[in-house]
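look at this stuff:

>
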Amino acid sequence: MSIKASIIISTYNHPKWLEKVLWSYECQTETDFEIVIADDGSDKETKLLIDAFRLKIGKHIEHVWHEDNGFQKTIILNKAVQASKSDYLIFTDGDCVARKDFVETHMKHREVGFFLSAGYFKLPMNISELISEEDIKNQHCFDINWLKINGLTSSFKNNKITSGSLKSKILNLLTLTGATWNGHNASGWKKDLLAVNGFDERMQYGGEDRELGERMFNIGIRSKQIRYSAICVHLDHARGYVKPEMIAANLKIREATKNDKKVWTDFGVEKK
């Protein structure tokens, strides 16, 4: 029997955060999906967590792993795409806890010829640490009052949490943020990702997800903004893996993609 969606979750050596993310997929209003963990070389603690969680929920979880050799997220994502069993793929990260309607929202807005672009609601470290399994199951971590009680400051960005159906539609239309491919919260048809040969595996941290979307634009795929509809909260963490030379190299690749209107990478799913 076919499944409606594959949730591809990237992770690297942060099982505490990944566990909270997996808890959020126990609460989804749409349940016809598989989970594919794209693991960029985590140690055994992550494997033990995934094995235990698989037994707990009785849902198929595919753990796609390779050895740790630095930041190789694009490589493991391509392997996860190949391992996925659905024709529709939802991408997120192992530090993004999904609201209960997250999968349902992506499925409701999917459309042939488009990919969906969304974002995350960033939490401070104290709240990230505080969130428990019960807070996720009861959706407290998406309740603006609960968040403020626990130290969240006022901001226009809080509209992501407080927007109802009508308000979210209006804000999706009015936002100045471009509807780009954002690896922490984006979805699209598997055939469209394969049509551009997936992620460019030369790329490390810094725009590697957007470059995929730029090639999809070049083959005529358009994007839809669901920034205020598909909600996940981002758990705080350090980014010690970020290096200026990574970002500079990625910018050169993106410039070539834009200037040459590239629709294919020779460094993707299929290799020469």
Q: What stands out?
A: The chain has one domain: 5-259. The radius of gyration is 18 Å. The mean pLDDT is 95.
